[in-house]
Amino acid sequence: MTLEQCLSGIVVRNPEAQEMDLEGGRVQISLPYLKPWLVRLFSRKSKTFARKFELDEVGAELWRLINGTRTVSDLAEHLQRSRGFDEAQAKESMVAYLNMLLVRGIVGLVVPQRNSTEC
Prior knowledge:
Layout: H1 3-8, E1 10-13, E2 18-21, E3 27-34, H2 37-42, E4 48-55, H3 57-65, H4 72-83, H5 87-104, E5 107-110
Antiparallel strand pairs: 1-5, 2-3, 3-4
Helix pairs in contact: 4-5
């Protein structure tokens, strides 16, 4: 994926993510995860467990902006305005932060398909 494709992607929350506000503007995100197969085999309890992630004040601010309509570029522009980042720094920070959220399954990225007639 190119940087341009990433920046034009729409950020969506994992529909199974549950949030809880914490002190200091932080947010805790909980996601259900399936226990390993061997544990599930011998366990009579739930086959899932909640994995929790804590977002700091800036991460929580961005989390609240993710509504399924904003692009990575929109979020980077917000960082630029609210935190005084320059454009390149805002884009780089946003891409790195979203990559972390993507790897953990907290968010997804919907990237528009290129038209087949485009070069």
